[in-house]
Predict the structure.
Amino acid sequence: MRRPNLAAVFALVSFAALAPAQSFWTQLYPAHSPLPRSSFGMTYDSARHRTLMFGGYDGRFPLNETWQWDGMDWTQIQVAGPSARVETAIAFDSVRNVAVLFAGRDFSLPGYMQDTWEWNGTAWTQRFPAHVPPARSHHAMAFDPDRAMTVMFGGVSNQGFPADVWEWDGADWLQRTSSGGPGPRQSTALTYDPSLGGVILFGGDSGSTWRWDGAAWHQLLPPQSPYPRLGNSMVADFARRRIVLLGSDPTPDPFAWEWDGATWQTRFVTSPGPRSYLGLAYDSSRRETVLFGGDSLVADTWVYATPNPASSTSYGSGCPGSIGTPLLANARYSLPWIGDSFTMEVTNLAPATSVAILATGIFSTLPQSLAIFGMPGCDAFLVPAATQFVVANAGTTQWTTRIPNSTALAGAHIYQQAFALEPGANAAGIVVSNGVNLEVGIR
């Protein structure tokens, strides 16, 4: 008998949904906090699950303070490091597990710096590479995890407004050349794009959106964009597969904007209020964007998140084939959000495997032995409500589906398990993967 398709599964689970919700800002009131400041560097240290902040302007002088946010409170780290500065930039290198800081400005003449520092969670270390970008401030930096490069663009220097691209590989700065590009600008923002790959640039006296892929700039032409602005900050929300932008100068804009890989959308939700030269960092452990301070010289801490996040959790263990146990997991940055597609992938299949079957259900079970079906050591972890045949190639396969655009599905659970055909692996010629518990979220 033919199994029902996924549309029927979604119809079955919709009645058990949670209330609809969306991302919004929440102000937090930690026991300790940095004093008001603007124009500082801020990034998330994913190796140590801390938001890192350095430097800034307190209304009188540049600062050389190092602070960390652990999701509950701010702590000042009493440690030697870079000199006091404003308008610096920091990005976290998630391959080498260090935060990279470059340049900035103090109030001396000429004031522009060109030093490189790294933070390893306990100490700052100055690096002395063979090649160094020209001194500057008001530049933008972001880490590209696909190429393991920290990318830097633009800023202000003694020579004006550079439009150069430099990349830090952990040992040296490498200048990149590309025809065209965003052109000279300062106080722009740069972050990795989980939808398209590469890094996205926006702002700096401009309302244009650009993507750097490591070799060339590509101007993107979305149907809707924020208006031109200085002093905005952007971060990649990896779980929601969105870029979050906040801040504007000189025209106030209190609302967050989100980039989905195709267009910008305004989020008319509760707002921390108009500000620029603020700090934003995406806390991947807690799946929320952290905001601190800004040019209004405030010392407030906010987080931006959805109360109904999508998730993918592995459970149970599969049974091995000739090269190991098949692994079922969501594709990188792909989770089941309502109104959007998500992708699951099966890896570690035998090269000879050409077909896999993806089983989907709305109920999980305790491990049910499949030995009676000729698969000793293999267990089923769900009650199938739908099955789908997918073609495998070179030891892997993917399967993509779309969650209906119904808020009633938020909070629903879907269970999946893969069955791969591998003749000779056992009497049935089938090996199975782990189970996956998918929770549907609403952005």
Notes: Helices lie at 6-13. Residues 6-13 form the longest helix (8 residues). The domain at 24-305 is CATH 2.120.10.80 (Neuraminidase). The two ends are 37 Å apart (CA to CA).
